[in-house]
Amino acid sequence: MSKAKKWNMIVNVAKCNNCYNCFVGAKDEYVGNEYKGYTAPQPLHGHQWIDIKRAEGGQWPMVEAQFRPQMCNHCDDAPCMKVAKNGAITKRADGIVIIDPVKSKGQKEIVDACPYNSVFWNEELEIPQAWPFDAHLLDNGWDKTKAETCCPTDVFKSVKVSDAEMLRIADQEELKTLEAKGGGKPRVYYKNSDVFDYAFLGGTVIKVNNGIEDCVEGVQVTASKDGAVIGSAVTDGFGDFKIQKLTKSLGSVELKIERDGEVIKTRTADVQESIYIGCITI
Ligand code: SF4
Ligand code: SF4
Asked: What is the phi/psi pair of residue 191, to 5°?
């Protein structure tokens, strides 16, 4: 494994509030501006070099959403490079992938080759374009990308480290890269993207006294699949429980509701995506 230091981007999804400052920052940097050897101007409309994706989970009244900025992943085994002709795409020693704005002219197949939909076609110039990791800024002494300077909540963190060090960081901070069919070892890492990656199973435990429904706080709800426990939660002051980080498309799950160690109710739920199963009366 190479000891050379290379750029990687860490994106903390839990901190993103969908303000679009990073998107606008990329527009400010690239629309109407040419950086020779890096990129031709981005058109005013139609390109999302930093693209804010949204994921939603659950049903009323237990709903959650997250926003995830996505851009060129600067893949180490980049599918786009495999279709590029005439050396139109190069991988720099520091990990950054550059689509040459001159050599790539007419090569629309580069757009289709990216499994992450991160390449956009410039109709006017007839070239494919993607976020170039702000390489022109980094080469001029910047120690961070434009998006990092624009983001009010510190979602982005670019790090220039060896591959071994990046693997260690990814393991320690539980980072993930995007998955795509034919994807090629991305260098953009995501953190805390639970709504995109997992399902939750939520509900509300109540009891009925003299016709009045009361929330039940402090009961344990445990979910099992084929006899193995897959998660648990304790109801809050509203009787709500939310069992997090479940694998999607689990299918039938058994729920056990316990108070003071005694099982007081069982039921099943079908978990495909995040689900709120409503009230459970004990
Ligand atoms: S994300 Fe797409 S455009 Fe960027 S390096 Fe990977 S394959 Fe190429
Ligand atoms: S600037 Fe930061 S908080 Fe705003 S959309 Fe971009 S990543 Fe999210």
From this structure: -125, 140
Residues 180 and 203 in one domain: no
Q: Which of 50, 71, 74 to mutate to test the pocket of ligand 1 (most atoms within 8 A of CB)?
A: 74
pLDDT digits (tens, 9 = 90+) for 131-180: 999 999 999 999 999 999 999 999 999 999 999 999 999 999 999 999 87
- Alpha-carbon distance of 200 to 259, in angstroms, equals 22
Looking at the structure of the chain, the number of domains it has is 2
Q: Which of 222, 247, 246, 245 is nearest to 233 (CA)?
A: 222
pTM: 0.91
Q: Is the pLDDT of residue 195 over 80?
A: yes
Domain of 226, CATH number, reads 2.60.40.10
- Give me the chain's average pLDDT, please: 97
pLDDT in tens, 90-103: 999 999 999 999 99
Please choose from 151, 158, 191 the residue to mutate so as to test ligand 2's pocket, defined by most ligand atoms within 8 A of CB: 151
Cα–Cα nearest to 35, from 92, 95, 94, 100: 100
